[in-house]
Each structure stands twice: as structure tokens, then as C-alpha cells.
Amino acid sequence: MRRGAALTTTAVAAGAMAAVGTALVLRRNPVRAHQLRRTATMARMGARTGTNYVSMKARSAVADPDRKQELNEEFQMRSAEQVAEMLGDMKGALMKIGQMASYLDQGLPEPVREALAELQQNAPPMAPELVEQVVRAELGDAPDRVFAEWDPVPLAAASIGQVHRAVTRDGRAVAVKVQYPGVDRAVAADLESSDLLFQVLGMLFPGLDPAPIVTELRERLVEELDYRIEADNQRLFTDHYRDHPFIHVPAVFDDLSTARVLTTELVEGAPFSEVVDWPDDERQLAAECLYRFAFGGIYQLHAFNGDPHPGNYIFHPGGRITFLDFGLCKRFSEQEVADFEDMIQAMVLERDVARFREVIERLGILSPELVVSDDDLVAYFGHFYEFVMEPEEMEITPEWSSDSVRRFFDLTGEHTDIMKAANLPPSMVIVQRINMGLFALFGDLHARANWREIAEEIWPFTDGAPSTPMGERIAEWEQTRTVA
Fold it and tell me: Cα–Cα distance between 21 and 35 in angstroms, integer?
């Protein structure tokens, strides 16, 4: 046999042995198998995007300026649609990244945001047969036998499961969230492969340091896989906000809920995509309610819903909002809430930079060894308090929201020394996510209010009087609860 032929034969044999070995490994380790398949999908996606980019550059080389801009926009749209489609099909942590990216940065190219926004409520659904498989395993029978009515077409499909409309045997309209079969393996595979998550984030945010998002996903996403945890969280909010004039949290149906099926009260209303076109006064009421819910939960319940994407809100006229999805809920200790209060007292109420520096050094946010001037400290951290610094009306614009995101993630901008050195404690990572997600929505709404006065109603250490008609009605509701 010729040497070349021998080498070829040896290579083929080695390849065959490697394939057999890989097959054995994957058969014994389904999570690893899932991880390799998802990595291969990402590799194909990267190759396809790279090919599109090379083609666009080649065509642009001989094009006039207007045509170059047109080709670049076509490339952005094609790439965004491909990435969104891939993330939607893959579910799990990767799809969660797509959902987060769709509302985190107003600075994303509009075609990219539009494509990713489809993941908020219009993710690809699973087959009815798979839904029946899960419901039968969890509730003991097929959906159309467990419920008096069952709509096989989902109301919404997200990163972990999808929601179906149904009617219980005693005639109550409900929303039934069914977890995707195998999504636990998908999440485990994604979280074991940080490089894969970094790669997706790199496609969406070229200047991003993805570590904070990946860290949060690793710590929190696993909790969302157990709907019993979500049910417990939702009951906490349902009980607290019962009969509230503006905030509504659907009730949980315990007898129809398990670790992988969650049944709650069905609520109809408008999605966020419609609210942005509502009259200005309605948009402002919606923004005020969102603000009161997010920050009121910290100080009244020592907890809040940590997944602030638009698909988790159902809007009603007059500022009333139904809040959904409590799978990613953070509960705070007394000390953690006291730490938030110390930071607000120092930066906002007292304007004491030295004390603020002392607080954030004590919390480990900034090392005492880092040399930072008072001006630089205020320039960076003060931005996150800017909207409550003065008792005056402030509009939160898309540009302001985008600047907030860049200050937290983009290591190519100003204040890089502070950004690289800052280390958020676990209790504050999710708070920062709420800040960014909420203010991204506010940017879309062009929300205006005297946020400082509303905040002083919410902060327990200021005890401010009601400053808006919404605040007055909430105060009346709180009085009835106190009397009761």
C-alpha cells in the first residue's frame, strides 16, 4: 500500500473510532450531547453571518455611498432575522439572551431590535403533541380532558415554556403555562458553555462585557425551571396587591399547577407594542404604574419580579397593569434593603460623596485601593440616581436609557476604570437589570414625571405625601388595608 493511501486509511479509521467514541460519550451524557449540538448550531450561524458580511463588503466596494448604506441595512436585517430565528428555535438560556437584548439597548440597529422583539411574545411554539405529553405527565390526562376547554394554539411562547388559554371544569378562564420538554437540558447545556453565551452576546453588542449577564443567568435561570417556585413568588405578590387600584397580579390555581405546569387566572388586555401608540396621558399613567410596582416591591415586600421585559405586562386604560411571570423573583434581606437606603441617603438626600464612597466600599462595589476623584465618582454612579436627584419633572428619553446600559456594560466608553473595577454584590445584579429593563421601556414611552416626589412616597425613610392622582388612590387603598 502506498504511504499516502496508508495515511488516508489511518485517518479514516481514526475518524471512525473518534465518531464511535463521541457517540458513546454523548449517549452517556445527554447534557453534553445537547451542548455540542447547540454549539454546532451557533457555529453554523456564525459561518452564515460571516459569509453574508463578506458578500456585503464585496458588493459595497464598488457601490456609491447611498447603495453602501442600503447594503449595510440589508445585512443587518438579514443577520438579525437569522439570529432571532436561531435563538427562538433553541429556547433556554440562549433565547433568554435574545429577549433581554431586545429591550436592553436602545442603541441597537433598529432592524436588529425589531427582529429580536419577536422573541418577547412570538417565539416559535412547540407541537401540540409535546404539550399534551407534558400536561398528561404532570396533571394525569390530556389537556382537553383535564380542562373543560383547551385552545391548542398558544397565547404566547417564551424561553422556558408557552401559555395556552383554557377553561376549568367549574367554568373559570385560565392561562396554562407548559414547560418545553427537554428545556432543562438546554439550559444546563447553555450554562455549562459560557463561551457560547459570550458568542451570542458578541453578535448583538460588539462593545459589551457579557460577564454580568452570564453570571446572572447562571445564578437565576435554573430557578425558572421549577414552576412551584414561581407559584410561591406569584402568591406573595397576589396577596399583597389584592384589590389594588392599579396593580394586578393573577391568582394561582394550586390544584392545576406542578413543577412543569402553572395555571393562573386569565387576563385580557393590550401588549406593550400597542401602548407605545396610546395617547400621551395613558402612556404616562402606564409608566408611573410600572415605576411604583418595580420600586415599591423592594421597600414594601422586600422582593420584586426580576424579568422586566414587555411580554410580562398586560396593559389596561387608566394606568392599570397586570403583571405576569414571577419565575425570576428576587427576595431581599433586611440588611440588603438597608444598604439600598444608605446609598440613596448619601447620594440623593445628603449629597455626601464621602459617605457614598464609604458605603460602596463597605459593600464591595468599589475597592478602597482604586483612586477615583469625587467628580468621577459622581459622574459615573450619579447617573443612576439622576432621575430622582431633583424634585422636578424629568423625561426619560431613549438616549438616556441607552446611556444607562452603556455605563453598565460597554467597556469602550468613558469611566472604564470604574466600570472594570466595580463589582456588584449578588443582591444588586438583579436590581441593575430591573433598572435597565424598566428604563428601556420608559425610553419607548417617553415617560415624564416628578420621579423624586413619587420615590419619596415609596421610600420608607422619607414618608412623602401622595404627589399624583394615582398616588392619592393608592394611599386610600393602603388606608383600607390598615383599617382591615
Answer: 17
Domain count, the chain: 2
| Residue 141 per-residue DSSP state | S
292 and 470 Cβ atoms separated by less than 8 Å: yes
Whole-prediction pTM value? 0.73
In the chain, what is the straight-line distance between the N-terminal and C-terminal CA atoms, in Å?
A: 95
- Which is nearest to 11 in space by CA: 140, 19, 331? 19
Decide: residue 82, CB within 10 A, 0-12 exposed, 13-18 middle, 19+ buried.
middle
Q: In this structure, is residue 443 part of a structural domain?
A: yes
Those residues with Cβ within 8 angstroms of residue 23's Cβ, 6 or more apart along the chain or in another chain: none
Which tens digit of pLDDT belongs to each residue from 418-474?
766 666 666 676 676 677 778 888 999 999 999 999 999 999 999 899 999 999 999
DSSP for 361-412, written as a single string? HHTTSS-TTS---HHHHHHHHGGGGHHHHSSS-EE--HHHHHHHHHHHHBTT
Nearest to 231 by CA among 261, 209, 208, 211: 261
pLDDT of 97-141, one tens digit each?
555 555 555 445 555 555 555 555 555 577 888 899 999 999 999
The grid coordinates of residue 63 equal 457601490
Beta bridge partners of 150: 166
- Last residue of some domain: 96, 117, 138? 117
